[in-house]
Structures are given as C-alpha cells and as structure tokens.
Amino acid sequence: MHSEKSISLLLFLATAMIPAVVNGGELQGARRAISLAAADTVAESPAPGSRTSHDGFAMLIAGGDIGGNVLHLVPNAMFVTSTDGAQIYDSVAGRFRQTAGRLHDSRETATATLLPNGKVLIAGGLRCSNGILGSHCTALDTAELYDPATGRFTLAGTGSGSKMTAARAGHSATLIHGCNCPADGKVLLVGGISGTVKTSFRGIVSSPPVDTAEFYDPAIDTFVAATAKMKERRENHCAALLADGRVLIAGGDDTGFFEHALATAEIYDPRTGSFAPTGRMEIVRELARATVLDPAIVKGALAGDVLVSGGLVAGARLAGDSSATAELFDPRAGRFIQVGSRMSSPRIRHSSVLLNSGPLAGQVLIAGGIQLRGDGTARGVRQTSQTTADIFDPSGGGSGDFRPTGELNEARGGHAFALLSGGPNSGEVLVAGGENCDGKSPSFCYVAGSSQDQSARNPGVAAELFDPTTGAWTPVRAAMPVPVSAASYEAVSP
Fold it and tell me: What is the pTM (predicted TM-score) of this model?
C-alpha cells in the first residue's frame, strides 16, 4: 500500500507543472486584422482564441496528454502520457477527424504557430511517460511542420539538423510581423526549461528556466539562436506581439514551476535584436493569459492595449494561489494598470478570446481555467477546474469591466480554443479537451470527455461551443477521436 505522503507527491505532479504553450502558448496566425499577438504560454496575441476570421478554417489539435493513473492511485490529466496523435475540427462540417499523419514525437504543451505559408510550426514541449515510480517528462529540442494540404507532419529545421538550438518547454512562440525589418515572418521562441521534470520526495524537480531565445525562419527552414538574452530567466510567461512588431514578454517564473513568479516584463525589439525592461505588473503572475485589444475591432481608449488575465501568484515553492484579477499593458506609455473589477473565478490556463462580430464584438470571452492553491507543502496543493466564464468589456469604466456570462457544461482548464469562422457556427467559440480537477487533496484530474472522466460521474463533455448571441454553451455532438489535455493548437486552412 502506498503512503499518504506518496499520494501527496502525485498531487504535486498534477498541479505544479503547467506550462503555457502559453503561454504557452500558444499560436500566432499569419492572417491578422492588424499585427498584434500574445503567449498561451504561449505567445498569444491575439491569444490563441482570437484569430482573425477568414472564410472557414479547421482547428488543428496536435499531441497532448491522454491522462492516466500515476502510481495506479491518482488520476492525472497532464504530464502522465504524451501522445503523437493529432486531430482536426472542421468548422464548416462541425466535426472532428484524425489527421492523415501522426507527430514524429509524442509531445504536450508544445507551441503552435501558423506560418505565412499556411503550415503550422509545432515546437518543443514535453515528452512524458508514466512509470512505476511516477511520471517523467523531458523537454524536446525538435519541432514539426503540419501541412494542411497533406494532413501530415515533417520535421522542421532541415537547415539546422532538424533541431532547435535548445530544448524548450513552457516557452513562448511569436510570429514577428509589422516591424518592417528582416525578422518579419520569423517565429521568436523565448525562454522555457531545457531539461527534465520528474517527481521526488520533495514533489516536482525540474530544470531551471533559461534566458535564451531563438528564431525559426520558414523561408530557409532553419532555427538560429538570437544574439541577445532576456533580462531574466522565464518560463510559463505570456507574450504579445505589438502593432509595431515589438514583443511584450511578461511574468512567468524564474526558478521553476510554482516557485517564484515574476511581476517584471520586457520588450524584444526585432529591429535592434535586443531585450529591454518595461513597466512592472501590479502583481506577480505565471500561467496568465495575454490578449491584445486589436484596434481594428476594439474602439476607445484601451484599443491596442494588452489584457493580462489571471495567473498564479507564487511567492515561494508550492505557496500561492491563482488570481481573479487582470491588468492592462499600454504599449504607448510602457506601463501596466490594474483592471478595476475582478473575474468571477481565479484562473490559470483559461481561454481568452477577442470576439470580432455580433453583439459582443470588441469584447473578450474568458472561460474555464484552474484555481491552483498551495500552502508550501506537497500535501497542501489543490487544483480546481472552473465552469465559470466572464466577458471583459473595454468600454466599461476607465480600465474596462468584467461581467459573468453563461457557464461551461464541463469544468476545464488547459483546453484548446478558437473563434470559429465559416460554417453554421461562425462567430462562436470552440473549447475542446483540457482537464477537469476536483479540488480535493489529493486532486483527481481527468481529461475532459474521456471514459475516465465519465466514470467519475463528470458531465463527460469533450468539446462545447459558446454562442455570443445567447451567452450559452452547447456541447459539440461530434466526439473528439481522442480527448486530450495540454495539446498544441492553431487554425489552419480548411
């Protein structure tokens, strides 16, 4: 029989390692109303859900975690068993299908970036496997290209030995656009960890974050190290592409997952190839979301600002709580201001989508996510997935305003999401997969919509749609071929 102490370590495994893809992040498309973007961890702005509409698209969901029982006791939905499978949601047909090919490497929490040539770059992430003594994850130094024309994956970086310059997980990926400089069209990959993540009697033991960056040049299919380094080491930060082609990099953790979150931010200028400090956030945040308030869609004083929502306020190892607050970065003044109102729930790894049509055009839908709490001990770490959703209205008050909207049918965090265009559900928001955690100690977490999720008497809804007209969520009737958590995702040509 396993001890209670061992079980508490499994809890920490399920909660402490939650990189952003991302800021993940997660995640920039080439088709933008303007050149603004941010990191789902991911570089995410417009965040991975606020992609520019065009006449129909499919949503690629690549890799992810299929979940499992760690040490045969505690169900986990992340950092257990990575998959090399991939699937497409066709917004016109309104259904999921498996891609013709599979990834070359099983991976989760990778970043996904839509390139100008229509292919999708899947970069880095973690390869996790479950063993007798717990799961073990390794950061990957490989990347892959998905070709919508064939539905297959090929290794990226033929000009650099089919390798990135460093292994990265919990990094950001941002497609540079708008600088009118040689970096236009290249993908900037920043930070993350380059080693392993594994369990020990202290909980999670991971390699420290790095301060390096690199570029992927799709024109010559090559990864090249950036000459400059960040001012601080970071992982699980968020990133946003500003209108002038500069990149905002904010928050994250400079020590390890759930150890020491940052309030600092910096700007990468592709014209000079340098990082420079900018204003500090009001509070420390890791695993927050960043969404650009695209001035082609948003009107008023906040147009062009970056909304940074939620995040983990970690002051020491395993000590902290998720936040229900948000703040705005003004790229003109180079400073952050706190949003006056709060979200209805504290959140990390939630979805954040700028709506571009209908009654909520110019407003941001924020949905789901996880409240991660810890008292400094492995036993005291808990995670609770959320069903709540909020609308951020930039016209409300001087700093915008949050108000609740309809709740999800299934609690979920770390899910894929996209604003649909074309088809019968055009203008609606799709959320798919993710993890549903019960908030107990130890926390049991299930891949949303999986058979294990249904056996736990959860709703078992793998994917659902938000209708901005009614404010309601409706389950997607077409099932996901394989429900996953922590997948990389991006819009591709239909």
Answer: 0.91
Please list, in sequence order, all residues whose beta carbon lies within 8 angstroms of the beta carbon of residue 163, skipping any fewer than 6 positions away: 141, 142, 157, 223
Rg of the chain taking only CA atoms, in angstroms: 20
SS3 (DSSP) at 419: strand
Mapping DSSP onto H, E and C, the string for 196-261 reads EEEEECCEEEECCECCCEEEEECCCCEEEECCCCCCCCCECCEEEECCCCCEEEECCECCCCCCCE
Q: Alpha-carbon distance 281 to 229, whole Å? A: 21
Burial 297-317 (b: 16+ CB within 10 A, else e): bbeeebebbbbbbbbbbbeeb
Distance CA 256, CA 253 (A): 6
Mean pLDDT of the chain: 88
CA angle at 305 for the pair 302 and 309, rounded to the nearest 5°: 105
Omega before residue 346 within 30° of 0, cis: no
* Angstrom distance (rounded) from CA 120 to CA 196: 26
Of these ranges, 26-40, 73-87, 103-117, 199-213, the one predicted with the greatest mean pLDDT is 103-117
Tokens coding 437:
């955690």
Q: Which of 189, 23, 77, 27 is nearest to 448 (CA)?
A: 77
Residues 6+ apart with CB under 8 A from 1: none
pLDDT per residue as tens digits for the range 242-253: 999 999 999 999
Tokens 């909304």 belong to which residue? 307
- Looking at the domain that runs over 4-492, which CATH code has it been given? 2.120.10.80
Polymer length in residues for the chain: 494
State which H helix or E strand residue 68 sits in. strand 68-70
SS3 359: helix
